[in-house]
Amino acid sequence: MTSSAPGQAREENVNSAPAARKQRLLRIGHSPDPDDAFMFHALATGAVEIPGFRVEHVLAEIEELNARALRSELEVTAVSAHAYAYLADRYRVLRCGASVGRGYGPVVVARPGSTSAPSGRLRRVALPGARTTAALLTRLYLGDFEPVVRPFTDVLAAVDRGEADAAVVIHEAQLTYRALGWELVLDLAGAWAADTGLPLPLGLDVVRADLGPAVARAVGTALRASIDHARTHFDDALAYALRFGRGLARDLGARFVQMYVNDDTADLGAEGLEALRTLYARGHARGLIPAVPSLEVV
Which of the chain's termini has less CB crowding within 10 Å, N or C? Predict the structure, then answer.
């Protein structure tokens, strides 16, 4: 599997032999980020296959994947937990593949001395996409503000350009923002943990409902096998994942991958489902999502 520049969206046919072209096409969307790359390593390299299907890996920023799922474009895709509130009529949640934080996750940051408190005085906040879970959490815990929606790779630059007073960072920037000269305004994951006592469901892998239960089960089985393979062959999978780490050092890359590819990723479980329902219930109560979606997990 050849790689694109970090952050560059691409679609890639990983098996283009004539015999493979007779198989059904299955497009799997995920972010070009270390944690997603790690858990899809075995599927991307052929160590795990989905019988009867040829796979195209569609790499795109999470907000683009959210938008494509709203158009029902991809058969299987990663989406934000927030975005699934708008997708439950067309996708089913896979039991494996979720990104779950336990006391860690998105944070609101600003330049030192530029703001005094996380109490709602911030006028403009750069969000990494309108339907990311980070955006929903910011609305739940930060108070009133003017959202400045940018790609996740541009939220810090938006502050430096004077377009926002603070930024919400996701992905590996959760580990690197202090080294880059930013200070914490509000730990959104910490606020969630203190408020609910639950893990924080950030992202989900979903399968399109019209494919039927048999295909959904086959996808879930293969994804679980890919996750297990990556965790068993950690060094190989990490070396592959770091190609998508935007310069992330190996030790921080390993830490980040282990934060988001863990037992919760292997199986969302009852606690993960409770956390999802709580997120949707609170979002709906605040008028931030239209309804609490039904959760059909496969």
Answer: N
Whether 106 and 168 have beta carbons less than 8 Å apart is answered as yes
Domains of the chain: 10-100+201-285 (3.40.190.10), 107-196 (3.40.190.10)
3-state secondary structure of 169: strand
3-class state of residue 268 by DSSP: coil
* Distance (Å, whole) CA 201 – CA 223: 18
Residues facing 206 on adjacent strands: 77, 93
- Does the predicted model carry a pTM greater than 0.85? yes
Type of residue found at 255 = R
pLDDT in tens, 100-138: 999 889 999 999 987 644 444 679 999 999 999 999 999
In angstroms, the CA 278 to CA 225 distance is: 29
Q: Would you please indicate which residues are annotated as catalytic (active-site) residues?
A: 171
Task: Give the C-alpha distances (Å, rounded to integers) separating 56 from 5, 16, 25, 106.
Answer: 18, 10, 7, 29
Through-space distance between the first and last CA atoms of the chain, rounded to whole angstroms:
28
Q: For 215-254, how does the pLDDT look when each residue is reduced to its tens digit (9 = 90+)?
A: 999 999 999 999 999 999 999 999 999 988 777 788 888 9
